[in-house]
Amino acid sequence: MNSPFISLLVLAGIAVFLILRLRSVLGTREGFEKPPTPRVDPAANARRDFEVIDGGPDRDITDHVEDGSDAAKALAAMKLAEPGFSVSEFLGGARGAYEMILMAFENGDVDGLRPFLAEDVMETFETVIQQREEQGLSIDASFVGIRELALHDASFDRGTSTGEVSVRFVGELTSVVRNASGEVVEGDPTEIKRQRDIWTFSRQMGSSDPNWILVATGG
Questions:
Q1: Which of 30, 38, 185, 219 is deepest in the core (most CB within 10 A)?
Q2: Do the domain assignments include residue 24?
Q3: Domain count for the chain
Q4: pTM
Q5: How confident is the model over 85-100, as pLDDT tens digits?
Q6: Structural domain harbouring 190
Q7: Is residue 40 part of a domain?
Q8: Burial class of residue 74, CB neighbours in 10 A (0-12, 13-18, 19+)
Q9: Are residues 155 and 164 in contact, defined by beta-carbon separation less than 8 angstroms?
């Protein structure tokens, strides 16, 4: 037996040994195994990510109400009627409106209230202000800030394109009631009290008038 043939047998034996050894360590493909990772096309990924973002939930809505809820559908309809409408921007405006309207009411500023209130709400506010004046009472109030603000509900009338959005506020202020002599009859000027309100604002979407009107108040 010549030397090259012996060398070939030795190499064949080593190869068989290595194959058996690998099988004992790695096992065989059987049952569920993760398939080989296919080649990734970056351009395809970019297109898929764009499609998910473009067709996914509107975060400007779902950050404030549950996705698929009636309120979410109403807000989406408002955006269709007025593409520039932003829920987050609306809530920022509602924050400022709450302070302005609340303090105008506390201070008895009827003229300051009138442009921002629906007629029936204005009548209610004005009646309370007149009653205070008739009793010789005045309110000394100072706005501290808004502790909580959240979108409470929303609705949209497709027939009139009118949107209504209810906002829950928890405001903080100091307030005292004084009689005609200036004596404090209610409240404490050093005590911060919390005011809880749910206000509903209304506007015709797509209108050239950007102002929302307060149409309902509640606690």
A1: 185
A2: no
A3: 1
A4: 0.73
A5: 999 999 999 999 999 9
A6: 63-218
A7: no
A8: buried
A9: yes
